[in-house]
Design brief:
With 852 residues, the protein is of the alpha+beta class. It has 26 helices and 25 strands. It folds into 6 domains: 1-47, no CATH class; 98-226, no CATH class; 264-367 and 603-654, no CATH class; 394-597, no CATH class; 676-797, no CATH class; 798-852, no CATH class. The longest helix has 24 residues, at 122-145.
């Protein structure tokens, strides 16, 4: 049907030009006209529906309605896009509120222009249209600025009644056509107070009234979420902006002069200063007095001195190197396995006393802030951290990670990390140099800080640790627990370069499928994207790895080693940020490895002691790193490493105090010649052997009892202990230097001086036939007798050298006979019976004789 109708009830047939009536705009008679008058054309029409229409809510459109309303443009048509872009440019250029598109007058005006255009809602313009326009303009400006060598910037404050005060930054430059050009590159909404407020018109105090006056705020609460929240920059996957790593602005290495021949103690003293030693000594003595005043005890206490405290910590370092099951085992001398030099340095009871009263802070200090959960050790940590940062400067590459201090006691901030080697303990956030593991900053985690708002735990930790290095171009590497877009942007603005793996669910990461875990990349393939100062890459290894950086060039590449089959390793090309991450993210792990080898692990119910000895070990390792940095190719510890350095450090802490051990305590029984003593059965009730009691003192071995004893001394003794009763060891001397005649002479003179023995009292001194000891005795001019047993042993060995086989056989037969009696109670009974019948002295059977 065609033609212009004379009214809305007539239609002209296009085939026969007949005029048909269409009452009320219905088309039933038109359909019937085609079927009857034009069957050929009717056959080309689509078949009618089998049943009635299911859309009962909307009736059939009438011709009148079609002419009056018109057909609406589809959202993918060119005309709809042209009109929508025009509205978007109007909103952006005129800076009007998004509420404008919801106002009836604005809609009516557009309807007058084009009745077929349907205006989108406010949410579309605020979330989509303006965002797309922003990305387009920003991309064009960035591309043009990339070709500009020089430019200038201006800034000014803007404000209006319908907009918060903001700071505008405009860039000015000469373009390729040699004309002056410029663009706004930043709007910083920070709640600035407008300096021109007094010159403006009157603005109501009530924000709601002010917004309604400016017609800016929509009073419908359900639509507030649709308001524009700021521009989001797209991640580009091509046309990258070139980036480069800025050099570290500080000089790496030691900050204090260290001589090339400095001993381990000299370097350690630069960290563990006199102030720390004085704090340990003062607080330990103060705490001992406070405890003993509250709970009186019979044990004596002598205030600890600085030399004693040095010995105490030196022994603690030794305990980390030589580990025994219990601390008391270091003083056990009865077992060959446990014979150490520790008793020569300090007695067990004195060590236990210092261990008991060891303290770092005055508990009764009125100025003490006990709301700090670390108040018991806070002062010590602060002093130690100052020395860490004052001794050594890192090389510009550090890693941030957590370190666990093992502790299973009850503690409010104890942590449980099931995937860590140390599952229960105290968490310490550590920033360490990537190459050496030197600790330049740390922070003990005690939980959330009450009353303090923060952007996130990881954000706060990294920012706090990096604070001393703001504006220094330090490169910080971290794992996916810390990395986020906001953190890396904040660090970039503060002059810190950062890189780390990132979790897929972090906010503001790219949403494109090829930049997510669902990208479906092949093994060792990667995709890279860039957003202003950030570089993001996705690399497919065994699992998908995502890395975020604020200083790496997205076009740069590196290589990492990977196993491609069997045991073969090949270099795989990866983005530079991922290669650098693998190289520099090992600082804290290296520290944990080195400190863990020789860390002090003695149990204690006081949590702060575990932290104290952890930081003591860290101080020792930091001193080692500082000493190694100045040591040349001939440095003593370059090949031997940290273990030998730590051994010498502990020896230096101990040896100056105890070059010779204190005299042993004599028993109350006077020492007399063995000829004046006689062993016999003098008791009717069994008593504890005196020598066994002294021998097993401080151990879990229970001394034996006997009826025998010394007649002259009236002391219970076993038969085999009798010889120990009539002779005593006056002193043992520690010989740290070479065993020369001069050193041995000095040790012997020290012994007789300690015991106040006159030289004229010495009837004879017997030694072995060593050349050094013989020379020392000759220098002393004491009466000397060679050890007969030694001479006899040499003579027998020389005489029996030709008959070694027969001699060994004779010894074997004797031992077999001895073993036969030892394994049979009946044989031993018959042996004793035979001795009685033959009136021979009864002898006990001894399995092994201590002979030369």
């Amino acid at each position: 049907m065609s033609g212009q109708p004379r009214d809305t009830t007539e239609v002209v047939c296009k085939i026969c030009s007949g005029v048909l009536r269409a009452k009320d705009g219905q088309t039933t008679n038109l359909h019937e006209h085609l079927r009857v008058r034009h069957p050929a054309e009717y056959a080309t029409l689509p078949p009618p529906r089998a049943g009635p229409s299911k859309k009962t809510s909307q009736g059939q459109q009438t011709i009148t309605g079609a002419f009056s309303k018109g057909t609406k443009y589809k959202t993918d048509s060119d005309r709809w896009r042209q009109l929508t872009d025009a509205v978007t440019h109007y909103l952006a250029k005129e800076m009007v509120s998004f509420n404008t598109v919801e106002k009836p007058t604005f809609k009516a005006m557009l309807h007058k222009f084009d009745k077929q255009y349907e205006l989108p809602g406010r949410k579309y313009f605020s979330k989509t249209a303006i965002q797309n326009l922003f990305n387009e303009v920003r991309s064009n400006i960035s591309r043009e600025l990339g070709d500009i060598e020089y430019l200038s910037m201006t800034t000014d404050m803007w404000s209006s009644c319908n907009m918060m005060p903001y700071m505008s930054v405009t860039v000015h430059y000469v373009n390729k056509e040699w004309t002056l050009d410029g663009s706004d590159i930043d709007l910083n909404f920070e709640g600035f107070e407008s300096e021109e407020e007094e010159e403006n018109e009157f603005v109501p105090d009530d924000p709601l009234e002010r917004a309604q006056q400016c017609d800016f705020l929509d009073t419908e609460e359900e639509e507030e979420e649709d308001e524009f929240q700021g521009f989001q920059v797209d991640w580009r996957t091509d046309n990258y902006l070139r980036r480069h790593t800025k050099p570290f602005s500080r000089t790496p290495g030691v900050k204090q002069p260290i001589p090339l021949d400095a001993s381990p103690l000299d370097v350690f003293s630069l960290i563990f200063t006199d102030e720390l030693w004085d704090t340990l000594v003062t607080e330990t003595n103060r705490y001992a007095e406070q405890v003993r005043a509250q709970t009186p005890t019979t044990s004596k206490w002598t205030p600890v001195s600085k030399t004693e405290m040095r010995t105490f910590l030196g022994l603690c370092l030794c305990f980390g190197i030589l580990k025994l099951p219990a601390r008391r085992d270091y003083w056990r001398q009865t077992k060959w396995l446990y014979q150490t030099s520790v008793p020569r340095a300090m007695s067990r009871d004195r060590f236990d006393m210092i261990w008991r009263y060891l303290h770092l802070q005055d508990n009764l200090d009125p100025a003490l802030d006990k709301s700090d959960k670390l108040w018991k050790i806070r002062r010590f940590m602060d002093l130690l951290l100052l020395q860490f940062q004052a001794l050594y400067e890192v090389n510009g590459y550090v890693s941030v990670d957590e370190s666990m201090v093992k502790y299973k006691g009850r503690l409010a901030f104890r942590q449980y990390l099931p995937m860590k080697p140390v599952k229960w303990g105290i968490k310490v956030w550590v920033m360490a140099e990537s190459k050496t593991g030197y600790v330049n900053n740390f922070q003990v985690y005690t939980g959330a800080i009450a009353g303090k708002t923060e952007t996130g735990l990881a954000h706060r930790i990294v920012s706090d640790l990096a604070t001393p290095y703001f504006d220094s171009n330090l490169c910080v590497y971290m794992d996916n627990f810390y990395t986020s877009v906001k953190l890396l942007l904040d660090l970039h603005h503060r002059g810190v370069q950062a890189c780390g793996t990132v979790r897929a669910g972090r906010k503001d990461l790219p949403k494109n499928k090829e930049l997510t875990k669902k990208a479906g990349l092949n093994k060792h393939a990667f995709n890279v994207a860039q957003q202003d100062d950030l570089t993001f890459c996705v690399w497919q290894d065994t699992k998908t790895v995502m890395v975020l950086s604020n200083f790496h060039d997205p076009t740069a590449h590196g290589s990492v080693k990977r196993r491609t089959g069997g045991q073969r390793q090949t270099n795989v090309q990866v983005p530079a940020c991922l290669a650098d991450y693998q190289q520099h993210m090992k600082g804290v792990d290296l520290l944990d490895q080195m400190v863990g080898y020789y860390q002090i692990h003695h149990r204690s119910t006081k949590w702060w002691r575990r932290l104290f000895f952890y930081f003591l070990s860290v101080a020792g390792y930091n001193a080692f790193v500082a000493a190694r940095s100045v040591g040349g190719p001939e440095w003593k510890y370059r090949r031997t490493g940290y273990k030998d350095w730590l051994e010498d450090l502990s020896q230096e802490l101990i040896v100056p105090v105890t070059a010779r051990s204190a005299p042993c305590v004599l028993p109350t029984t006077p020492t007399v010649a063995s000829a004046d003593h006689d062993l016999a059965q003098i008791f009717t009730k069994r008593k504890t052997c005196r020598e066994c009691s002294l021998k097993h003192s401080g151990t879990s071995v229970r001394p034996g009892s006997t009826l025998m004893g010394c007649k002259q001394c009236n002391v219970p003794l076993h038969r085999e202990c009798f010889m120990h009763h009539v002779s005593r060891c006056l002193e043992t001397s520690f010989m740290p230097d070479r065993h020369t005649a001069d050193n041995l002479e000095e040790a012997l003179r020290g012994t007789i001086d300690d015991w106040k023995i006159q030289e004229k009292q010495i009837a004879c001194i017997t030694t072995n036939n060593g050349a050094n000891i013989v020379a020392a005795i000759r220098q002393l001019k004491w009466p000397w007798l060679s050890f007969f047993g030694h001479n006899l042993n040499l003579a027998i060995n020389n005489s029996l050298a030709q008959q070694r086989a027969s001699t060994d056989r004779a010894f074997g037969v004797c031992r077999a006979v001895n073993v036969a009696f030892a394994h049979s109670w009946l044989r031993r009974h018959e042996l004793r019976k035979a001795q009685v019948e033959m009136k021979l002295p009864e002898h006990s059977l001894i399995m092994d004789c201590a002979t030369r």
